[in-house]
Amino acid sequence: MATAAASMEARTLETLNTDNLSLRALPVDPVEGGPVRQVEGACFSRVKPTPVNNPQLVVASPEALALLDIPASEISRPDFAQYFSGNKLLPGTDPAAHCYCGHQFGYFSGQLGDGATMYLGEVVNSRGERWELQFKGAGKTPYSRQADGRKVLRSSLREFLCSEAMFHLGIPTTRAGTCVTSDSKVVRDIKYDGNAILERATIITRIAPTFLRFGSFEIFKPTDNFTGRRGPSAGREAALLPVLLHHVIRTYYPAIWAAHDGDAIAAGVGVGPDGAGEPWPPRSGGSEREAALQAMYLDWLQEVTRRTASLVAAWQCVGWCHGVLNTDNMSIVGVTIDYGPFGFLDRTDPDFICNGSDDSGRYDYKGQPDICRWNCERLAEAVRAVLPEGRGKRAVAEVFDATYRKTYVSLMRRKLGLVGAGAATDAEEEAAAGGGGASLLSEAAAEDEALAASLLSTMEATGADFTNTFRCLSRFPTPAAGTDPSSPAAVEAGGVLDYLLTQCCDAATLVAAAAPRIPPQNLQMLVMLSQKNPELLHQMGVSQQMLATEMARLRHSQELAKVTDSEKRAADGAKWRSWLAEYGAVLQRRAAAGAEDGRRVAVMNGTNPRFILRNWIAQQAIEKAEKGDYSEVARVFALLRNPFSEAPVEDIIAAAGTSTRGGAVTDEAAAASGSGTSAAMVAPAPAPAGPAASGAAAATGVSCALPVYDGLPPSWAAELCVT
Predict the structure, then answer these.
(1) Taking the CA atoms of the chain, what radius of gyration do you get in angstroms?
(2) 301 and 396 Cβ atoms separated by less than 8 Å
(3) Residues 600 and 633 in one domain
(4) Which of 75, 252, 289, 703 is 20 to 30 A removed from 15 (C-alpha atoms)?
């Protein structure tokens, strides 16, 4: 480790170890830059960042930059913002925009591509890890369509903060290295109401093993029967698809490549950028070689599906909604990618839609697993030229649901502290399932799954805050042996019940949340139309299923409207008493089997975050940053880097070593910050039933008006709309 650390210390922006493998391995457009156009037969088009006026660093992530061997000391360089705005090119980089397609809101949209992002290059760090470096918001590319290739401060800060927040929550994600704003202005119509304003052009640096995505393989799609659109490289799949596929497996799935002896079986298959090789199917080796290649492709597709299923399970367990799960926003290596109108749940609501432009609710919270499975099926379609479509889709079906359920239940058990004695390991689960794999669970795991489902149902019915509910459960003491878990003393122990009732919404909020998204008068009109002219209804983009769902919401909201606040509070109390009694009984049985309560608390506090990037928290930071004050960005970033900490807010902020000018820290501070987020290393601390109170200490220099970052959202947060 000392050698690696010394290597990183020796690096500067001028001496990064760049190796732009993707541009050597994949076909590149012979036309550099140029107008918006269809790009045929290429995966990349070379471009140049468009300079901005007076670039200024807003915030940087030392941990993310360390992946490139960039030490934190480089952040304070006078020309740092010049390099990370694109005004100066980092030595060794070779900017290019990636060509891809996508299914958007269920429909194939043809060529999309990097309209506002660009590949800068790849860095191989001192640990031998390969990381792709990318700009977002650096100007026009051949894929910008009618847009200007720019991003603004508000969207850039949201992506920067959430990328790093997800990493510190332990969820696979692209990383954000820097956020640099400027005095260059772009026109934006925030509410799409004709009232355009000027906003500051802003660039973020993104880092990932690769930014290749499901849509990268859809450039070969023939004309779609419904939309009439086609991929720009349709008809070239025999020559180019094997090249793309082999590059992805060899580089990002080396274990699969090695297991199938990829160097031998794939040699000469596909026409590379240098013109060498032959189209699919392989001429030499006959059917035996073709079968060997297809076996490798199948293993790869299954592993992509497995990673995707595990990823969406992690999203569900932390209450996070992506918002735009198109195939072009699905990473080929199973990480969270493309942060747009995302949102964390506040009030528990399976129907939560974080994207204000998702009128149909296609990408709501509860539907994310099904959508991700659907997207994996589209990937199977995209490679059907080399792997029979039916075989690929069967592989997706066999892997996705089983992996999702296993991962989801495993995470939920940790969130509820159902570990240790009486909780089976993954290997024991496999054995208990009788060899049926992850699709089956042991009896104990199935019981825990039911307990988690009961909890979520209670949270939804009472309108409880998702994050704070899970966080406070570690304070619920295990009932002593011989104690009735349903007794008032057991249920009310630790003050958890009282705290939970403070996290439930009022009756009016629940009524408003349950209301149909279509105004009732319009809904009644559509119902009549569905009976008289269903074809016209379809043309209006309204399905019978959507109509039935909206009518059910209307009836439910009308029933809820009859409930008073006092009646709701009494009902909430009864629901929570019942669930806590059930939970207490489970904990009591586990304790009798030898489970240690201290370990339970530690696991829960290291799995259930205290701090998340709620929309209102991001909005407050954005509003100050737009006025040139980056202090709130620095504070929020400090908390998101320590999501499980029980320390007072002002202590976390002070320890992070952030400044009001963007959050550059020392290498020592970066190392210290990165050491405290592992779930296994978080120790429990005595605390009240709810998340720790946020105070202010004069010695820290922190304002006494700090928001309560771990409390319920303010009332105005309900009005926020992100599109």
Answers:
(1) 26
(2) yes
(3) no
(4) 252
Confidence of residue 536 (pLDDT cuts 50, 70, 90): confident
Condensed to tens digits (0 to 9), the pLDDT of residues 325-369 reads 999 999 999 999 999 999 999 999 999 999 999 988 899 999 999
For residue 239, count CB atoms less than 10 angstroms from its CB and return exposed for 0-12, middle for 13-18, buried for 19 or more.
buried
Q: DSSP string covering 641-665, please?
A: TSTT--S-HHHHHHHHT--TTS---
Residues 88 and 207 placed together within one structural domain of the fold = yes
In tens, the pLDDT along 367-408 reads: 999 999 999 999 999 999 999 999 999 999 999 999 999 999
Q: With the CA atoms of 562, 564, 567 and 569 taken in that order, what torsion angle do they form, in degrees rounded to the nearest 10?
A: 130
* Residues forming the active site: 328
Same domain, 551 and 635: no
Neighbour-count burial for 351-363, b at 16+ CB within 10 Å, e otherwise: ebbbbeebebbbb
Q: How many CA atoms lie within 13 Å of 581's alpha carbon, on the beta-carbon side?
A: 12
Q: Where is the domain boundary, 230, 265, 300?
A: 230
* 632 within 8 A of 617, measured Cβ to Cβ: no
Q: 3-class secondary structure for 419-486?
A: CCCCCCCHHHHHHHCCCCHHHCCCHHHHHHHHHHHHHHHHHHHHCEEHHHHHHHHHHCCCCCCCCCCC
| Phi, psi (rounded to 5 degrees) for 208 | -160, 165
Distance of CA 619 to the CA centre of its chain: 19
Q: Do the strands 107-111 and 343-344 form a parallel or antiparallel pair, or are they unpaired? A: unpaired
Average pLDDT across the chain, whole number: 90
The total number of residues shown for the chain amounts to 723
Please name which of 251, 459, 290 lies closest in space to residue 387, comparing C-alpha atoms: 290
User: How far is residue 668's CA from residue 647's CA, in Å, rounded to a whole number?
Assistant: 20
Prior bond to 242 cis, omega within 30?
no
Q: Is 598 exposed, middle or buried (0-12, 13-18, 19+ CB in 10 A)?
A: exposed
Q: How would you label 296-332 residue by residue, b for 16+ Cβ within 10 Å and e otherwise? A: bbbbbbbbbbbbbbbbbbbbbbbbbbbbbbbbbbbbb
pLDDT for the residue 430: 54
Tokens of 425: 């390991």
Sign of the dihedral through C-alpha 408, 411, 412, 413: positive
Encoding tokens for residue 304? 């992509």
Rounded CA separation 466/127 (Å): 38
CA pair distance 127, 503, nearest whole angstrom: 45
Is the pLDDT reported for residue 676 higher than 90?
Answer: no
In a shared domain, residues 548 and 646: no
Residue type, 62: P
**Structure-token pair, residue 282:** 């392989």
Residue 650, token pair as written in the block: 């002002």
Report strand pairing: 130-136 vs 117-124: antiparallel
pLDDT of residue 541: 73
Q: Are residues 537 and 467 in the same domain?
A: yes
Residue 144 near residue 307 (C-beta atoms within 8 A): no
End-to-end CA distance of the chain: 44
Residue 496's alpha-carbon distances to 11, 30, 374, in angstroms, are 51, 64, 40
Q: Among 446-455, 481-490, 595-604, 693-702, which stretch is predicted with the lowest mean pLDDT? A: 693-702
Q: How crowded is the C-beta side of 4, counted as CA atoms within 13 Å?
A: 11
Per-residue tokens: 392: 């690929």
Tell me if 353 is assigned to some domain.
no
- d(CA 404, CA 188) in angstroms, rounded, equals 39
Domain that holds residue 494: 457-606
- Domain assignment of residue 369, yes or no: no
**pTM of the predicted model as reported, rounded to 2 decimal places:** 0.91
Q: Are residues 88 and 225 in the same domain?
A: yes
Percentages of the chain per state (helix, strand, coil), in multiples of 5: 45, 10, 40
